[in-house]
Design a protein that fits this description.
Layout lengths: L1 H7 L2 H13 L5 H29 L8 H17 L2 H9 L1 H4 L2 H14 L5 H36 L4
Helix pairs in contact: 3-4, 4-7, 7-8
Length: 159
């Protein structure tokens, strides 16, 4: 398919594509995957330490420790984003810093910081949840679909 499109291009465009491919920087996919895995795993490791500390010092159970742990991770991320540290972590780790819940916290606070000059209502308030809103909507929808599938499978005696 790509060869057919290339043949339909004028000769100058074909030459430019060859020129571009020769000078394009090669992505180190394996190296990027390793960095994302290690940083994402380290973020999860920190979350596990926080959970353990909450269970040990504040008598949370395994069932109740999740919410304060997530809130703490988001708070730490927001502080690091405010000081510009999380952006450097994100540049290094890529998806490893964006996939855990810390990526959600980073997206929310980065939008708030970017639009703070427009005021609290029209700037921070309206722009802060532009990215967070779809994440919440699709997260709730995905949870609904999974719960529906589990309910159907359970009612058939499959699980």
């Amino acid at each position: 398919m790509a060869d057919k499109k290339k043949k339909n291009l004028p000769p100058v465009a074909q030459e430019y594509q060859v020129f571009q491919q020769q000078r394009e920087t090669k992505r180190t996919l394996f190296k990027n995957c390793i960095k994302a895995f290690l940083v994402g795993g380290f973020i999860c490791f920190i979350g596990q330490i926080i959970s353990t500390l909450y269970m040990y010092f504040f008598n949370f159970t395994e069932m109740t420790v999740g919410n304060p742990t997530v809130a703490t991770l988001i708070f730490i991320t927001m502080l690091l984003t405010g000081f510009g540290v999380y952006d450097r972590i994100g540049q290094f780790a890529g998806a490893g810093s964006a996939v855990p819940v810390t990526g959600f916290g980073n997206a929310v606070i980065a939008s708030a910081i970017e639009h703070r000059t427009e005021g609290f209502i029209l700037g921070v308030g309206s722009n802060m949840l532009k990215l967070a809103g779809p994440v919440i909507v699709y997260g709730v929808f995905a949870a609904f679909v999974i719960a529906l599938i589990k309910t159907i499978l359970t009612s058939w005696g499959g699980l």
